[in-house]
Design a protein that fits this description.
The complex is a heterodimer of chains A (about 400) and B (about 130). Chain A is about 40% helix and about 15% strand. Chain A has helices at about 15-20, 40-60, 70-85, 100-110, 130-135, 160-170, 190, 240-280, 305-315, 335-340, 345, 360-380, 380-385, and strands at about 5, 65-70, 90-95, 115-120, 140-145, 170-175, 195-200, 210-215, 280-285, 295-300, 315-320, 350-355. In chain B, β1 and β2 form a beta hairpin. Classes of the chains: A alpha/beta (about 400), B alpha+beta (about 130). The interface of A and B includes residues 303, 328 and 382 of A.
Amino acid sequence: MRRIYLDHAATTPTRPEVVKAMLPHFTDAFGNASSIYSYGQEARGAVEEARAKVAELIGARSEEIIFTSGGTEADNYALEGVAYANERKGDHIITTSIEHHAVIEVCKFLEKRGFRINYLPVDKYGLVDPDDVKKAITDKTILISVMHANNEVGTIEPVEEIGKIAREAGVCFHTDAVQTLGHIPVNVDKLKVDLLAISAHKFYGPKGVGALYVRKGTRLVSFMHGGEQEKRRRAGTENVPAIVGLGKAVELAGQEMGKEAERLAYLRDKLIKGLGEKIDHIRLNGHPTRRLPNNVNVSVDFVEGESLLLNLDLEGICASTGSACSSAILEPSHVLLALGLPPEQAHGSLRFTMGRENTEADVERVLKVLPGIVAKLRAMSPLLKTKK
Amino acid sequence: MPDPWSLYSEKVMEHFKNPRNVGEIENPDGVGYVGNPVCGDIMELYIKVDNGIIADAKFKTFGCGAAIATSSMVTEMVKGKRIEEALKISNKAVAEALDGLPPVKMHCSVLAEEALKSAIKDYLEHQKLKKQT
């Protein structure tokens, strides 16, 4: 059975061109980028070339890019770095209730350390109101963090408007662009952000590498201590092969993402439309139009997400759910709850995120098997009867 | 060969794919209803009792793979058992009968035990009322 992978928001396969670019840096060109002899300088050159590529794609300068171990580290560094650099200036941070855990959990950690955090609500589509951001700003606000697009429901946030507000108020502004970079245009000046986090494996690069854009003049305390790398902000020998892979993935995304986004949006809309036609009591989560080109997130009434996933897996289809049946806390996705979904609908959510290898045939396959799976699970659901 | 990295045992998957005793019993002698939508598992268990012996058991479940498999297994286990014996079925016994559950899913077996106990309690209360009248 051919497997159909529809979970590209979780991770993507590394492209062969990316692997090819990385390979020499494990063996022949293995040098430490900090060494002054030729091996080292080759490695330094490769790292700086990758840095220039990342900078170019997001409209930044090379010296504003810091390589990290991924999106989570980039987000952690941005929030903690700004918070501790501005402790004397203020103690207030504004974020949203639908951020990725790499932001929310850092905020909770900072809260325990005495910072005050505002978790702004979102509307039923998952949109943050820029006015709410404006109203939340006080003279103690040191940072605003709003994600570019949500990883679960795919809603694209009004980051540009919020950036304008942040800049007028003179508050540092961070965005988690892990779900958008390489998929839709990201430009740091257009978005008016001071900090922006990216991750390579979300756009066909390798796992374990990402970057944080830091606008020149932004004050951050160092995240890692122990060397001169990344201007002493992030010490540790550079992961040269991974950084080269990130650079290659960025280069390819820059060339191809416009066309690919169009193709994916077509598949996305076909899947959304088809699901609505073939399954009753199903609803789209997230915004109908302001949404990532590859994201479909639906709630199927009366059934639970994990049993949907297991059944899809038996058919060779890989997807994701906001049901937290497998986590120890048993609470469904904080994002879906923030959108106002009742718990049983959050537990019945299903996310399909498409990518390069997917075709129309994959969408048709989902539309062919899912209605039967839903019918089977509904036949054994006690919720359906009580709604009759 | 079983895949050591799969979440569930083959037996859990077998019961998940082909759950036994799905449905409701008309005029049941006892009904158990446990769980809540917040944690994502709801089980409804019906029993038919004949001379102190559970003659039939059926279930309806909203929940994950483990919730469905434990519901299926517990209904299989109680059929033909005397009420006193059925009351002794523990969540561990249900999990063991399924060749084990992942630690994060043990609560599903607890729910299955509770659903059974709640159905039996319902039955016993009805019996008590019958005697009084």
